[in-house]
Structure formats: C-alpha cells, structure tokens
From TrEMBL:
Localization, UniProt: Cell membrane
One Pfam family recorded for the sequence: Exosortase_EpsH
InterPro entries xref list: EpsH-like, Exo/Archaeosortase_dom, Exosortase
Organism the protein comes from: Novosphingobium kalidii
Keyword Glycosyltransferase: no
Membrane disposition: Multi-pass membrane protein
NCBIfam families xref list: 8TM_EpsH, exo_archaeo, exosort_XrtV
TM helices/strands, residue ranges: 23-45, 51-69, 81-99, 105-124, 157-176, 188-214, 221-251, 263-288
Alphabetically ordered keywords of this record: Cell membrane, Hydrolase, Membrane, Protease, Transmembrane, Transmembrane helix
Name of this chain's protein: Exosortase V
The organism's place on the tree of life at top rank: Bacteria
Gene responsible for this protein: xrtV
The keyword Membrane is assigned to this record: yes
Length: 294
C-alpha cells in the first residue's frame, strides 16, 4: 500500500494556471505590500541610515529571480489552504502594525506574506533552495527601536573612542566628552548615522550579496566573511569620523559640515566594500588554498 506524497513536481503551466485561478492571492499581496513600501521609502529610505534599502531591494529581487531559474515547482498540497490562511492572518497583523505605527512590525508582516506567496508558488523544498536570496531580502526590515537605540548608543561611544585614540596617537589636539568630539577649537557630535548600527545592517547585507555571488559553494569561508562584515562596518564608520574631524580641523566647520559631510555616506560604503574585497583577496589564498591542498 503506497501513500501519496505531500509534495509533488508540477509543470510550470500548471503552476501558472493555479495562480490564475487564485488571482486574489496576488491582489491581496500587492495591496498588503504597497503601503508598507511607500511608507518605508518616505520614512526610512530617504534618510542616510536607510539609504542602502533600495539597493538591497533591487539586488535581492534580482538574486531571487536569478536563483529561481531552472527551479521546478514542487507545490505542497497543504498550500491550498495554508497560503490563504497565512495571508489572512499576517495581512491583519500587518494592518494592525501600520495602525500602531510599528513600521518594522509592518514590514515583517509584509515579508512573511511574500514568503508565503513564494511558498505557494514553488513549494517548501524549492523555497529552501532559495533561502539565501529570501533571507537577504529580510535586511530591508529596519531594526526595532528597542534594539537599535541602545546598540546605537554603545556603538557611538566605541567609534568615538577609537577615532579620538587614533588621532591622539598621531599628535592631533583631540578630546572626547561622551559623543562630543573636540579637535582644536572645533566641536563635533557623533550622530546616529556615524555610530555603525545602521551601517552594520546595510553593509552586512551588501557584504552577504558579494560573498554569496563569489563563494556560494564555500559555506564556511562565506560565513567567515559575513561575520567579518561587523568589524568592517565599524572600521568604515571610524574612518568616516576621522575624515570629518580632519576636514573640520584643516578647513573649518564650513568644510566639515558642508557637502563633504553629506557625501560621507557614499564614502563609508566605498570604504567598507573596499575593505571587504581586500580581506577576501588576502584570506582566499590562505584559507581556500588549504582546502584545495587537502
């Protein structure tokens, strides 16, 4: 006696037909997603902290489509009732989060809804094959305030201390009082954008994208580079603070707080990416060479 499998391969035309019959799921997904993305663009992506959000969304969508090529749908039978039920539950959850102005909860609900729709289209096993691009897209969700605020405060002190210590060792007249930095007759404040918390989130995401494309088959090495993105992000933020201190010291407030300060977000991204590439060039021959030798 044979039991019917709960997961079976389905031709693409059958999947398309299933979605045509259940078009309301796509409509519900679009209605759920649109307000959250618009709010995210207005409230977070327009700030320096969330400037990498659109990049993560576009690269994540591209990576998902790229990895989904050649994937044969193996839709689960449970998807017939599980997908609509999940969309109903998490759709209501998303609406409640929007009403209470909890944007990260709203985006979490949207993300779960999209993953549910993807599960309904492909099945659980194929969804696991796409776990890297799916998890990568989760970096769009900004960290909640009860985590971001204390972490930002701690990281601001770490970045400020490191920057002042470096310049002091070079003989510059620098001092620190909390997040207030003094160089010569000038005073600067280490803002949240300079702390590294938001940079860690966005730069880690971009680093994972780089690592996955180049070293997807080398799981341990890719994991090592992903972990190294945290100190890389802090290093890039410290370089930014040091650069702004030196610009202010030699050029005054007009230079330090002018257009060069506004362009510092792009600068930190380039520093972090360049540092990651340099680490990869140094570590790859050492670690991957040993694996080949074995």
């Amino acid at each position: 006696m044979h039991t019917a499998p709960s997961c079976q391969s389905v031709p693409k035309e059958v999947v398309a037909s299933w979605w045509m019959r259940h078009w309301f799921i796509l409509v519900a997904g679009l209605i759920t997603v649109a307000p959250g993305i618009v709010a995210l663009a207005k409230n977070y992506w327009s700030t320096e902290q969330g400037a990498a959000g659109p990049i993560i969304l576009m690269t994540g969508a591209w990576l998902l489509l790229h990895e989904a090529r050649g994937v044969q749908a193996a839709r689960d039978r449970q998807a017939r009732w599980l997908v609509p039920a999940s969309l109903l539950v998490f759709g209501a959850f998303t609406v409640a989060a929007a009403i209470t102005a909890k944007q990260w909860l709203q985006l979490l609900g949207i993300y779960i809804c999209l993953v549910t729709v993807l599960y309904g289209a492909l099945g659980w096993r194929q969804l696991l094959r796409l776990r890297v691009p799916v998890l990568y897209l989760a970096f769009i969700i900004p960290p909640p305030d009860n985590i971001a605020v204390p972490a930002t405060h701690a990281l601001k002190g770490l970045v400020a201390s490191g920057s002042v210590g470096f310049l002091s060792a070079l003989g510059y007249p620098v001092a620190r009082d909390g997040v207030l930095l003094y160089i010569g007759q000038y005073e600067l404040v280490v803002a949240a954008a300079c702390s590294g918390m938001n940079s860690i989130v966005s730069l880690t995401a971009i680093g994972l994208f780089y690592v996955y494309l180049l070293h997807r088959a080398r799981v341990r090495y890719a994991a090592l580079l992903a972990v190294l993105m945290i100190p890389v992000a802090l290093f890039a933020n410290a370089v930014r603070v040091i650069a702004l201190l030196l610009l202010t010291y030699y050029g005054g407030d007009a230079v330090g707080q002018g257009i060069l300060h506004d362009a510092a977000g792009l600068f930190i991204f380039l520093v972090a990416l360049g540092t990651l590439v340099a680490l990869d060039r140094i570590l790859a021959p050492l670690l991957l060479g040993r694996e080949k030798a074995r």
